[in-house]
Amino acid sequence: MTTPTMAVKVLRAPRVRRGNISFNLSLAVLAVMTLAAIFAPLIAPYDPDAVDFAAIYAGPSPAHWLGTDALGRDTLSRMIFGARTALLGPLLVVVSSTVIGILLGLLAGWRGGWIDAVLGRIFDVIFAFPALLLAIMAVALFGKGLVAPVVAMSIAYAPFVARLTRTLVASERSRPYVSAYRVQGFSGGWIALRRVLPNVTPIVGAQSTLNFGYVLAELAALSFLGLGVQAPTADWGAMINEGQAGVMGGYFLPAIVPAIAVVAVVVAVNVIGEELSDRIGGGIPA
Amino acid sequence: MTTLRRVAGKLGALLLTLFLASLLVFFSRFLVPGDPVSFLLRGRKPSPEAIAEVTAQYGLDLPPWQQYLDWLVGILQGDFGRSLQFRQDVSVVIGERLPVTIGLVLMAGTMIAIVGLIAGAVAALNRGRVLDRAVLVGLTVLGAIPSFVGSIVLIAVFAVQLGWFPSFGSGDGGFFDTVYHLVLPSIALAIVFVVLIGKVTRSSMVDQLGREHVEVATSRGLTRGTVVRRHVFRNAIGPILTVSGLLVAGLLVASSIVEAAFGLAGIGSLLVQSVDRLDFPVVQAIVLLIVTAFVVVNAIIDILEPWIDPRSAAGAGAR
Predict the structure, then answer these.
(1) Is the pLDDT of residue A9 over 50?
(2) Which of A53, B187, B188, B196 has the CB geometry, 3.0–4.6 Å to B151, for a possible disulfide?
(3) Measured between beta carbons, which residues in chain B are less than 8 angstroms from residue A217?
(4) CB of B131 within 8 A of CB of B122?
């Protein structure tokens, strides 16, 4: 168990590259967004749903740093509360698709044979359905909200994780340490779960974090289309949807602020994900 | 002979994937607990005529496999059933809206190809230099701008502030007016995908630039332009085509976002509207169309690959 264990050590080593501003900046962006989401009720200056007809489309001011929207609701407060659904959805999708994908990939790569062939065929069919399309179909079946899209997108992303895991597991299987455990009489299932799984998890995990950005953008798109998080609730995608009328009238802030938030998080996650993949030695061994 | 067998194998795999996809699209309805009639007529008055209509359309009194077969046979004959919201055939409703989506996807695809290929080639030919770095950073930033963000920003700047382009609808139907109306939507659709073509072009060309045959061509005294065109780009095109095929799905699905933002009557906005108005027959038809388009385009690229890049027919080892 040489290579992957070394990879883990490299990951844990305090190898902060000097001048790696974009990585540290991305970590800061994500940290701020996460803290904002967790402590939203403490930080937000206003109730995100508090309507104020005296301050409709107010510009930035000491009272409303980022102005207000068509109903006089404070844009900054809605941004802060909106971070909750915006981050929670992709987190659930990434975690569940990673768990499902790793288990199925382990099964396919370790057992091979007909199980591998059947799973491969199923993955091919799921690949034919883009994640957002599967999510839209799930809403058509089970109704609007975040639950059906999150389940659908977990299913859509799992095959990507499974395929990578399968490749890694298949190459691990022929390594000497696996034969050594076999000779000592350990069962195949024990070796797969206790020795092979920990070796492939860091690489797969790093690749999975790269999905976070895409999932966030896709779930926000669903809310933008009016199929995800529903209107009065503060959510970035829904805010952009509601803000579009204001944009037509020349009031840009209520839509542009959440739009910038989406782009900032996607960039930050991609920078961090690529850096993690680089450090771990990223992906499929030759 | 081997070519024929290879093509037959690919076509078989294509048909199997389409068959399994059709099972998923059809039987997804059975995942919803409860009575199928009340599912299909959600939000509508279950009048005896409406019940009779959906029962006849789906053959709800028949066993499930019979329902599926009837549905599939209908689709193969171009009959996708009746839309519940428009009281028209689904094929008619979709047919009316298909041209806008095709125009949008074609324009966006052209933009992606032009900008992506140029950006990738410029980066590859200047690899390691500042220009390479700048192109890569630019591509990464563009790749983080989802279609709905792009739409809003373009509407704000070019439609509202500057007033150069319209922000709503697809025009009066004339060719130039339609193109004019589709400029902003297709840019919004193209932005996020440029990074994929740009990056694969760059890495594929960088890979070729380091090969011996390129050095040989250069040492034979061919001009830089000829070497790049005939020996670098020609050989780099395989991976670029593969990625282009994968883009089709993304473009078709993301067009629903752009169509919604710009008020275009295409099949993407029809899909969203049909989900919103609980018109399941239309949803099923559009999902199946998008999946079919995606799978078929990729199969065609896969099948044509040996003709475009003869080395892939000679085996992966040939370089």
Answers:
(1) no
(2) B188
(3) 146
(4) yes
